[in-house]
Structure formats: C-alpha cells, structure tokens
Specification:
single chain, 464 residues, alpha+beta, 6 strands, flat
C-alpha cells in the first residue's frame, strides 16, 4: 500500500516540477536576451552562435530553477491532494505526513547530489565558455552597413558614400569611394551604381562598381594626376574583424564562478599559507628590532665614561634619533605586511563563499521540500496562482538571504560558511516547524482572511 502511495505522490510531482523549471528558465532566458540584445543584434552573428551562447548560459539558470521547481511541485501536489481530501484518506490508511514525504525527500536527496555534481563539474565549464564567447562577440565589429546619404568609415582606410541604397538586393546608386590606404596618394572612385557583398568568411568586402571614373593623385603633385573611366571596376577591401572568430578558452583567465571546487580550494589553501607566512615574518621582524633596540646588541646605550658630558649628550641624541627612525620603519613595515595579510584573508573568504554556494544551492531542494509539503497541506492550494505566489515569496526570501550573505561575507562582516547557509537555515527551521506541527495535526491556518482572499482571487482567474 505504501509503495502505491509513494509512486502516486512522485508521479504527481513530475508535471508541476518540469513546468516550474521550464517556466523559470524561460523567464531567465528572456531576461538574458533583453540584457544582451545590443551585443547580439546588428553584428551579423550566425544563428548557431547565438543559440550556443544561450544554451551555455542556461547552465546557471538550471541551477537556480531546479530548487524553485521542487518548491512549486511540492506545493501543487500536496495542496491538490489536501484540497481533494486525499491526504485524509492516506492518513486513515496509516500513512503519516512523514511517510508521505519520505519518497519525496529521497528523490530530493538524489536531485541534490545530481545538482551538486552539475554545479561543480558542468557549470564552471559552461560559464567559462560563455564568457569567452561573449568576449569574442564584444570584440567583433558591427555588421558593415551603408546608409543613404551618409559617409561610412566602418572599414579602415576607406570612406564610402552612396546616394541611394537598396538593402534588399544590396545595390547602391551614386557611389563615391575615398581610398586613403596609400600613404602618398589618394584614389577617389565615383560610379553610377554598385553592388556590395562580403566574401563567405566575411574577411573581405567586394565592391563591384559600374559606369564611373577614378581620380588618382600621387604626392599631391598635379603633374601625377590621372582620371580613368571604366564600365566595371572592382574594389576588394580588408574587412577583418567583421567575422566572428572563437578564441582559445585557455587564453582567458577564469573567475571564481568558472572554477571547480578543487581549484578554488587550492587558491584558499595558498592564501591561508601566505597569510600565516606574513604572521611569521611580522614576528621575526619584531624580534629582530627588539634585539637591536633593547637586547644585547643595543649599541645605542653604550656610552663611554671617558667622554665628556657634552659628547655624551650628543651621542644620546643621535642614538635616540636612530631609535626613532627604526621604530618608524618597523611600524611602516608591519602595517604593510598586515595589509597583505588582510588581502590574503579577503581573497580566501571570497573563494570560500563560492565553494559554499556550490553546496548550499543544491541543498535548497531538500529545504524546500520540508517547506512545500506541509505548507501545501495547510493552505490547500493546489492551483497554479496560489502555488506560484507562495513559491515567489520563498524565492525572494531565499535569494535575499543568499545575496545579502554574500555581500556581508565579501566585506568580512560575516562568516563565509554562515552567510551562504543562512537562507537554508532560516527556511529549513521554518520547514521543520511546519512539518512537525502538520504531522501532529496541530497547525491550521487555511481559514485566515489573507489565505482566503488569495485563494479566491486564484480560483477566479482559473475559472476565467
């Protein structure tokens, strides 16, 4: 009986989980396109290049979408079962809330492990490839275009003017080309019409001109001026930079979000070692100066009794000035070393934050199950609008804890571990509280006015 219930509950989770994940990914993709539309449109990029860039960025979207999909599916499934009194039937057959949640928790643990593997192995490579590709797109010049009545300087060494432009057929009318590629001369080509087109690799621009003349002048000497009439004339211009070329992935350094945990841990260990070395250097420097100023080698306190009192005062004054200089040097040296120690500590914390984030975000799948199952039962949601509203609220809370904790950790105001797990702790404690209370049937707030109002609005939208 319990196996049948487990399969039934898990089967009900599949559709809302996939819907929630795909919806969140779609919204992220839409936001990404709007944010980068100026870099993707108007550069003559191949459609496949744009698709690759979107697919690579889908990796980080999935990492954030899967926990949201888990929360949405648990709210929908347990809410609909509660609304149709299936929860009551299951409980009457001996299945408590904990038992009903067990298959979902086991699935959540498997999903957490899979998402952690994806977060550590796939996501860094996808982020790095997306960074390289976006950098190549940024370096790529805009697609060559000629506007009617406007001078175009898009190609180095040439200025092109066309009185009329047919962008559909690529034909030009009243064309004038100023060739400035020659150091000691200039060509001016005028033609009645022309056709502009790129070579297949977009490395060259071929300009076929018809019925015109060429004006050539060398060294600004009128004796070297020539005019040549032509029926057809072809100009091949170097258009390097207009084509999209992929850089070597190893040529661009990786950021913290493009590294595996083992790589970031290595940096953390190096930073900790360097910080400890600074402490050792400070200790040695203090001991050395102490021995010089106060210890056995303190030459500044050696005065000879044979010297006159005036000479002794002069020697004391010189010795005090030397001591003052050494103290100032020691203070400056120690401050410099402590600043380096602070930089090492800050660097270590930044990478620890990213390491803990790779663990914390996948673990949110389990935390959201603890919240979603009991909350779906007590609210009896079961519809899209109500479940989406609760999901959005918890997502904002969790995301605020994640971003806020990261900022506090980067500023050394909170432990990196605590800052990344703060959202899981808050939501997890709430989830455990709800689970225990609902399992003991000691929590009911489905009759609250706010809950009633939200459910009423959701049901009206559903009926419409």
């Amino acid at each position: 009986m319990f196996n049948l219930i487990s399969r039934y509950i898990l089967r009900n989770h599949v559709a809302p989980f996939l819907f929630g994940v795909f919806l969140v990914v779609f919204l992220f993709i839409f936001q990404f396109i709007l944010k980068n539309i100026d870099q993707l449109v108007g550069k003559g990029l191949d459609t496949w290049v744009i698709i690759q860039l979107i697919v690579l960025n889908t990796a980080w979207m999935l990492v954030l979408a899967v926990p949201i999909g888990v929360l949405f599916s648990t709210l929908m499934t347990f809410g609909s079962m509660s609304a149709s009194h299936e929860i009551t039937i299951f409980k009457s057959s001996g299945a408590s809330l904990i038992k009903m949640m067990t298959p979902v928790l086991i699935t959540g643990i498997i999903l957490t492990l899979a998402l952690f593997w994806f977060n550590d192995q796939i996501l860094p490579e996808a982020n790095h490839r997306a960074k390289v590709m976006l950098n190549d797109i940024t370096r790529k010049k805009p697609t060559f275009s000629i506007e009617a009545g406007q001078f175009s300087n898009a190609i180095d060494g040439y200025t092109i003017l066309a009185r009329k432009v047919d962008s559909v057929h690529g034909t030009l009318k009243g064309v004038t080309v100023y060739d400035n590629t020659r150091a000691k001369g200039m060509n001016i080509v005028s033609a009645d019409s022309g056709i502009a087109q790129f070579t297949p690799d977009q490395s060259k621009l071929i300009l076929n001109l018809f019925h015109g003349e060429i004006h050539q002048l060398y060294n600004n000497d009128l004796a070297n001026y020539r005019r040549i009439n032509f029926d057809k004339y072809q100009i091949m211009m170097n258009a390097s930079g207009f084509s999209f070329t992929e850089s070597n992935e190893n040529s661009i350094s990786r950021g913290d979000r493009e590294m595996h945990i083992r790589d970031m841990q290595k940096i953390v260990d190096e930073a900790v070692t360097a910080s400890n070395q600074v402490d050792t250097n400070v200790k040695k420097q203090l001991e050395k100066q102490y021995d010089y100023l106060i210890g056995k080698d303190n030459r500044s306190s050696r005065f000879y009794a044979s010297e006159s009192p005036q000479k002794q005062d002069t020697s004391r004054l010189a010795a005090l000035k030397g001591v003052d200089k050494r103290i100032n040097f020691l203070e400056s040296s120690v401050n410099s070393m402590m600043l380096r120690k602070f930089d090492y500590a800050l660097r270590a914390k930044q990478y620890i934050v990213e390491i803990q984030k790779k663990y914390a975000i996948p673990f949110a799948c389990i935390v959201f199950i603890l919240v979603g199952c009991p909350l779906g039962i007590v609210t009896r949601g079961g519809n899209f609008g109500f479940s989406a509203a609760i999901t959005l609220g918890f997502y904002i809370l969790y995301w605020a804890c994640l971003i806020g904790g990261e900022k506090l950790a980067d500023r050394a105001m909170m432990s990196p571990v605590l800052s990344m797990w703060l959202g899981n702790i808050i939501v997890g404690v709430l989830g455990l509280y709800l689970t225990i209370r609902v399992n003991n049937e000691s929590l009911k707030f489905s009759n609250l006015p706010v809950i009633k109002k939200v459910k009423k609005i959701s049901s009206k939208k559903k009926s419409q």
